[in-house]
């Protein structure tokens, strides 16, 4: 018996795959969507803490600054289907949206499940065939062109589906429980595409200093973070950012730390990574020293341990006292100029060493993947296999937090679906 034939076969029912399926089906193509999970959009469901930060309204001129890797590759697809198109598309399919601080766009209902429902409804309206519990096990290529996919359903039944085009939208490696198994990388490699090494990014960091644990739960707002890489005797500042971070039982997390993880390579045998936090970035060293002097002279008989309340969060004070090396019981009027300068330096540069980054199962995205040099950015078609397309996180592109990763999925999915269709 001949295997069933489709115009476009999409592998992966995540953000990129669903958008690609819709965009191909809107061209009246016969589309098949294959998803190994029992439902579509398992990762979408957990995005934005269950609220799904769909995209970001950042001005066009700055948009690509939010993509640390291969922004030029993304230029074409984001120009064709940018954040305004995404918002319009969702409104059209019945999902109302709202814009929050920092240009972050969310569904008005604050429910990621509504995003999935709207996409599913549109897939059904367009008559896209959806096979759940169906894992693609291989891609078959003949004479340099895509021919068919092999699948296994419900872990038992093997099928083949033939098609004019196949679109790999299998995602990355993070949060594997959502279906990110890395299969797309295998398919790409087996069909001759180069892969760029993967690592988890937008991820928290383990810190060596034991005092970090005592700060668990403390959020620092409006701080400056410098990240320094030390190779032998040489030190280089490789990242500077402002914003919010928090302490956890293992180290540090929060938006600022996640962004840094995306830019700075984790420590290895050749280099060490240090974080330096400026807790009072609005004050210069001199201004901070004057402020401390004023605080101390207002309370000359106070013990040092009771004199920092106005300056630092309560949870941080015992740690800062310890790190400053000034005896906790010392009367503030006896604190020497040198001790005071050390305290200023500590507040302007609280330093800690990164032990390692947390793993894929806590990372928002995967860095690396299918090398962009093997993909045509205008169509998302492989330059190696005719009729084979890529979309979403499986490609070596990733964005910062704020809706920029889903924008990759929507833009590349839209373009791939249009071109394959
Ligand atoms: C906790 C968390 C929160 C996030 N929040 C946001 C956010 O708010 N905003 C934002 O922009 N980004 C966010 N992201 C990132 C964003 O979710 C991803 O970048 C995006 O979902 C990638 O879409 P994708 O379609 O490429 O991959 P996925 O969404 O991972 O979809 C891939 C699909 O392919 C399927 N699949 C894989 N292999 C096979 C196979 N062999 N056969 C059949 N099916 C297969 C998988 O089961 C999966 O359903 C978040 C990520 C995480 C982990």
What is the level 1 CATH name of the largest domain? Alpha Beta
Reported CATH architecture of the largest domain: 3-Layer(bba) Sandwich
* Overall average residue pLDDT: 96
| Protein structure class | alpha+beta
CATH superfamily (homologous) name of the largest domain: FAD/NAD(P)-binding domain
The gross shape turns out to be elongated
Uncertain runs are: none
Molecules bound to protein: flavin-adenine dinucleotide
Per DSSP, the total helix count is: 13
Strand content: 25-35%
How many β-strand stretches? Answer: 18
Helix content: 25-40%
Largest sheet: 7 strands, mixed
- Domain unit count: 3
Assembly state of the chains shown: single chain
Question: How large, in whole angstroms, is the Cα Rg?
Answer: 26 Å
Stated plainly, the CATH topology of the largest domain is called: FAD/NAD(P)-binding domain
First-residue to last-residue Cα separation? 26 Å
Overview of the structural elements:
- By secondary structure, the protein is of the alpha+beta class.
- The protein has helices at residues 15-25, 42-46, 60-63, 71-80, 83-92, 112-125, 183-190, 211-214, 255-263, 285-298, 317-324, 337-348, 404-420, and strands spanning 5-11, 31-34, 55-56, 97-100, 104-107, 129-131, 134-142, 145-153, 157-168, 195-201, 205-207, 219-231, 234-247, 251-253, 272-278, 350-357, 365-370, 388-390.
- Strands 1, 2, 6, 7, 8, 9 and 18 form a seven-stranded mixed sheet that branches. The protein has a six-stranded antiparallel β-barrel with strand order 11-14-13-12-15-16.
- A hairpin with a 3-residue loop joins β8 (145-153) and β9 (157-168).
- α1 runs parallel beside α6, α4 (71-80) crosses α13 (404-420) and α10 (285-298) crosses α12.
- The mean pLDDT is 96.
- The structure holds flavin-adenine dinucleotide (FAD).
- Flavin-adenine dinucleotide is lined by residues 11-17, 34-37, 42-44, 46-48, 52-53, 135-136, 169-171, 174-175, 178-181, 183, 364-365, 392-393, 403-406, 409.
